[in-house]
Specification:
This protein has 258 residues and is α/β, with parallel strands linked by helices. The protein contains seven helices and eleven strands.
Length: 258
Protein backbone atom coordinates (compact mmCIF):
# COMPACT_ATOMS: atom_id res chain seq x y z
CA UNK A 1 0.00 0.00 0.00
CA UNK A 2 1.23 3.48 -0.87
CA UNK A 3 1.29 6.11 1.85
CA UNK A 4 0.54 9.83 1.68
CA UNK A 5 2.60 11.09 4.62
CA UNK A 6 1.61 14.77 4.54
CA UNK A 7 -2.07 15.54 5.13
CA UNK A 8 -3.75 18.48 6.89
CA UNK A 9 -7.20 18.36 8.47
CA UNK A 10 -9.36 20.79 10.43
CA UNK A 11 -6.73 21.01 13.18
CA UNK A 12 -4.61 23.00 10.71
CA UNK A 13 -5.69 26.61 10.23
CA UNK A 14 -5.70 26.40 6.43
CA UNK A 15 -7.70 23.17 6.03
CA UNK A 16 -11.45 22.65 6.14
CA UNK A 17 -11.23 18.88 5.62
CA UNK A 18 -12.22 16.91 8.69
CA UNK A 19 -10.10 14.01 9.81
CA UNK A 20 -13.09 11.68 9.23
CA UNK A 21 -13.37 12.94 5.63
CA UNK A 22 -9.65 12.37 5.12
CA UNK A 23 -9.84 8.84 6.49
CA UNK A 24 -12.81 8.06 4.23
CA UNK A 25 -11.04 9.46 1.15
CA UNK A 26 -7.92 7.43 1.96
CA UNK A 27 -9.95 4.21 2.14
CA UNK A 28 -11.61 5.00 -1.18
CA UNK A 29 -8.23 5.64 -2.80
CA UNK A 30 -6.65 2.62 -1.08
CA UNK A 31 -3.77 4.57 0.41
CA UNK A 32 -2.47 5.06 3.92
CA UNK A 33 -2.28 8.57 5.36
CA UNK A 34 -0.66 10.49 8.18
CA UNK A 35 -2.33 13.56 9.67
CA UNK A 36 0.50 16.10 9.91
CA UNK A 37 -1.09 19.17 11.48
CA UNK A 38 0.63 22.54 11.43
CA UNK A 39 2.44 23.65 14.54
CA UNK A 40 4.43 26.88 14.15
CA UNK A 41 5.46 29.37 16.79
CA UNK A 42 6.84 32.32 14.79
CA UNK A 43 4.64 32.56 11.69
CA UNK A 44 2.65 35.69 10.83
CA UNK A 45 0.20 33.48 8.98
CA UNK A 46 -1.43 32.17 12.19
CA UNK A 47 -0.15 28.63 11.94
CA UNK A 48 -0.16 28.10 15.70
CA UNK A 49 -3.32 26.07 15.68
CA UNK A 50 -2.67 23.09 17.92
CA UNK A 51 -3.57 23.58 21.61
CA UNK A 52 -1.27 23.37 24.62
CA UNK A 53 -3.60 20.65 25.87
CA UNK A 54 -3.71 17.82 23.33
CA UNK A 55 -6.70 16.05 24.87
CA UNK A 56 -9.33 17.54 22.54
CA UNK A 57 -7.33 16.77 19.42
CA UNK A 58 -6.65 13.22 20.57
CA UNK A 59 -10.28 12.66 21.56
CA UNK A 60 -11.33 13.32 17.97
CA UNK A 61 -8.48 11.61 16.16
CA UNK A 62 -7.37 8.73 18.34
CA UNK A 63 -10.40 6.59 17.30
CA UNK A 64 -9.39 7.04 13.64
CA UNK A 65 -5.87 5.79 14.22
CA UNK A 66 -5.51 2.43 12.50
CA UNK A 67 -3.31 0.40 10.19
CA UNK A 68 -3.98 2.99 7.48
CA UNK A 69 -4.29 6.21 9.47
CA UNK A 70 -1.46 7.71 11.53
CA UNK A 71 -1.24 10.78 13.74
CA UNK A 72 1.50 13.34 13.32
CA UNK A 73 2.65 16.93 13.19
CA UNK A 74 4.32 19.30 10.79
CA UNK A 75 6.43 21.44 13.09
CA UNK A 76 7.83 24.71 11.82
CA UNK A 77 11.47 24.58 12.89
CA UNK A 78 13.30 27.62 14.23
CA UNK A 79 16.32 27.69 16.50
CA UNK A 80 14.53 30.14 18.81
CA UNK A 81 11.57 27.78 19.38
CA UNK A 82 13.37 24.46 19.46
CA UNK A 83 12.38 23.74 23.07
CA UNK A 84 8.70 24.24 22.27
CA UNK A 85 8.98 22.07 19.16
CA UNK A 86 10.80 19.30 20.98
CA UNK A 87 8.19 19.32 23.75
CA UNK A 88 5.32 19.10 21.27
CA UNK A 89 6.97 16.28 19.34
CA UNK A 90 6.92 14.19 22.51
CA UNK A 91 3.45 15.02 23.83
CA UNK A 92 0.96 14.41 21.04
CA UNK A 93 1.24 10.63 20.66
CA UNK A 94 2.74 11.33 17.25
CA UNK A 95 3.55 8.50 14.89
CA UNK A 96 5.41 10.88 12.62
CA UNK A 97 6.86 14.40 12.71
CA UNK A 98 7.70 16.48 9.65
CA UNK A 99 10.22 19.25 10.23
CA UNK A 100 9.68 22.24 7.94
CA UNK A 101 11.14 25.71 7.54
CA UNK A 102 8.38 28.31 7.27
CA UNK A 103 10.29 31.22 8.85
CA UNK A 104 13.78 32.54 8.05
CA UNK A 105 15.45 35.14 10.29
CA UNK A 106 12.06 36.01 11.76
CA UNK A 107 10.41 36.46 8.36
CA UNK A 108 7.43 34.32 7.40
CA UNK A 109 8.05 32.89 3.92
CA UNK A 110 4.33 33.13 3.13
CA UNK A 111 4.00 36.80 4.07
CA UNK A 112 7.16 38.91 4.11
CA UNK A 113 10.26 36.82 3.37
CA UNK A 114 10.34 38.04 -0.23
CA UNK A 115 9.93 41.71 0.73
CA UNK A 116 13.69 41.95 1.30
CA UNK A 117 15.52 43.99 -1.32
CA UNK A 118 17.85 41.18 -2.29
CA UNK A 119 18.46 39.20 -5.48
CA UNK A 120 16.84 35.79 -5.83
CA UNK A 121 20.12 33.96 -5.33
CA UNK A 122 20.69 35.58 -1.92
CA UNK A 123 17.10 35.03 -0.82
CA UNK A 124 17.24 31.34 -1.72
CA UNK A 125 20.66 30.92 -0.09
CA UNK A 126 19.29 32.41 3.16
CA UNK A 127 16.55 29.78 3.17
CA UNK A 128 18.93 26.89 2.52
CA UNK A 129 21.38 28.07 5.19
CA UNK A 130 18.52 28.37 7.67
CA UNK A 131 17.40 24.86 6.78
CA UNK A 132 20.87 23.54 7.56
CA UNK A 133 20.90 25.37 10.90
CA UNK A 134 17.58 23.98 12.07
CA UNK A 135 18.54 20.43 11.16
CA UNK A 136 21.63 20.81 13.30
CA UNK A 137 19.71 22.39 16.20
CA UNK A 138 16.24 20.82 16.04
CA UNK A 139 16.83 17.14 15.34
CA UNK A 140 13.53 15.99 16.90
CA UNK A 141 11.73 15.43 13.58
CA UNK A 142 11.58 12.37 11.33
CA UNK A 143 11.55 13.78 7.80
CA UNK A 144 12.48 17.19 6.38
CA UNK A 145 9.44 18.65 4.62
CA UNK A 146 9.23 20.41 1.25
CA UNK A 147 12.88 21.34 0.86
CA UNK A 148 11.89 23.84 -1.86
CA UNK A 149 9.09 25.57 0.08
CA UNK A 150 9.90 29.18 -0.98
CA UNK A 151 9.37 28.22 -4.62
CA UNK A 152 5.61 28.19 -3.96
CA UNK A 153 5.54 31.93 -3.29
CA UNK A 154 8.58 33.24 -5.14
CA UNK A 155 8.00 36.44 -7.16
CA UNK A 156 11.18 35.86 -9.17
CA UNK A 157 11.17 34.65 -12.80
CA UNK A 158 13.03 31.48 -11.76
CA UNK A 159 10.88 30.18 -8.93
CA UNK A 160 12.61 26.87 -8.36
CA UNK A 161 15.63 26.71 -6.06
CA UNK A 162 17.59 25.04 -8.80
CA UNK A 163 19.75 22.12 -7.73
CA UNK A 164 22.61 22.97 -10.10
CA UNK A 165 22.75 26.56 -8.76
CA UNK A 166 22.87 25.53 -5.09
CA UNK A 167 24.57 22.16 -5.21
CA UNK A 168 26.91 23.05 -2.32
CA UNK A 169 24.08 24.20 -0.03
CA UNK A 170 21.92 21.20 -0.86
CA UNK A 171 24.88 18.93 -0.21
CA UNK A 172 25.37 20.41 3.25
CA UNK A 173 21.71 19.79 4.04
CA UNK A 174 21.91 16.19 2.82
CA UNK A 175 25.00 15.55 4.93
CA UNK A 176 23.26 16.91 8.02
CA UNK A 177 20.18 14.76 7.38
CA UNK A 178 22.40 11.70 7.14
CA UNK A 179 24.36 12.67 10.25
CA UNK A 180 21.13 12.90 12.25
CA UNK A 181 19.55 9.88 10.53
CA UNK A 182 16.60 11.79 9.07
CA UNK A 183 14.49 11.11 6.01
CA UNK A 184 13.77 13.62 3.24
CA UNK A 185 10.29 14.32 1.92
CA UNK A 186 9.27 14.16 -1.72
CA UNK A 187 6.44 16.68 -1.65
CA UNK A 188 4.10 15.87 -4.52
CA UNK A 189 1.87 18.96 -4.41
CA UNK A 190 3.47 20.51 -7.51
CA UNK A 191 4.82 17.51 -9.39
CA UNK A 192 2.33 18.16 -12.20
CA UNK A 193 4.62 21.10 -13.16
CA UNK A 194 7.29 19.81 -15.56
CA UNK A 195 10.06 22.16 -14.43
CA UNK A 196 9.32 21.56 -10.77
CA UNK A 197 9.35 17.78 -11.28
CA UNK A 198 12.68 17.92 -13.09
CA UNK A 199 14.29 19.95 -10.31
CA UNK A 200 12.74 17.74 -7.62
CA UNK A 201 14.25 14.68 -9.27
CA UNK A 202 17.67 16.34 -9.44
CA UNK A 203 17.45 17.19 -5.73
CA UNK A 204 16.57 13.59 -4.91
CA UNK A 205 19.41 12.33 -7.09
CA UNK A 206 21.75 14.59 -5.13
CA UNK A 207 20.42 13.15 -1.88
CA UNK A 208 20.96 9.62 -3.19
CA UNK A 209 24.46 10.43 -4.44
CA UNK A 210 25.34 11.69 -0.94
CA UNK A 211 24.31 8.35 0.51
CA UNK A 212 20.69 9.19 1.31
CA UNK A 213 18.15 6.42 1.19
CA UNK A 214 14.98 7.05 3.19
CA UNK A 215 12.25 9.30 1.83
CA UNK A 216 8.68 10.03 2.82
CA UNK A 217 6.20 10.95 0.11
CA UNK A 218 3.32 13.32 0.76
CA UNK A 219 0.75 15.40 -1.09
CA UNK A 220 0.42 18.25 1.43
CA UNK A 221 -3.33 17.89 0.92
CA UNK A 222 -5.72 20.30 2.61
CA UNK A 223 -8.82 19.01 0.78
CA UNK A 224 -10.15 15.50 0.30
CA UNK A 225 -9.92 15.83 -3.48
CA UNK A 226 -6.16 16.52 -3.19
CA UNK A 227 -5.40 13.50 -1.04
CA UNK A 228 -2.82 11.40 -2.86
CA UNK A 229 -2.34 13.94 -5.66
CA UNK A 230 0.66 13.21 -7.86
CA UNK A 231 1.57 10.38 -5.51
CA UNK A 232 2.56 8.10 -8.39
CA UNK A 233 5.01 10.73 -9.64
CA UNK A 234 6.57 10.91 -6.18
CA UNK A 235 7.09 7.17 -6.05
CA UNK A 236 8.51 7.27 -9.59
CA UNK A 237 11.09 9.88 -8.53
CA UNK A 238 12.07 7.69 -5.58
CA UNK A 239 12.51 4.66 -7.85
CA UNK A 240 14.46 6.63 -10.46
CA UNK A 241 16.97 7.67 -7.82
CA UNK A 242 17.24 4.38 -5.89
CA UNK A 243 15.53 5.84 -2.82
CA UNK A 244 13.46 3.84 -0.34
CA UNK A 245 9.98 5.19 0.55
CA UNK A 246 9.05 4.68 4.20
CA UNK A 247 6.20 5.43 6.56
CA UNK A 248 6.56 6.05 10.29
CA UNK A 249 4.60 4.45 13.10
CA UNK A 250 5.38 5.39 16.70
CA UNK A 251 8.36 7.33 15.30
CA UNK A 252 9.91 4.23 13.72
CA UNK A 253 10.48 3.94 9.96
CA UNK A 254 9.01 1.00 8.04
CA UNK A 255 9.57 0.19 4.36
CA UNK A 256 6.56 0.64 2.11
CA UNK A 257 5.71 -2.61 0.40
CA UNK A 258 4.44 -1.84 -3.10
Amino acid sequence: MKWDMHVHTQASFDSEMTSAEAAKAAREKNIGIAFTEHLDFECDSDLVCMPDDWSGYLEINRPLRSQGVLLGLEIGLTVNTRALGRKASCECESDFVIGSVHVVEGRDIFTDFFSQDLPAREIYRKYLKCTLAVIENCAFFDSLGHIDYPSRYSPFPVKNIEYHEFKLEYGEIFTALLDYKKALEINTSRLNDVDFRKNASLIMKGFSDCGGSLVTIGSDAHRACDLGRNLEAGYEIAAENSLSPVYFREREAFPIQL
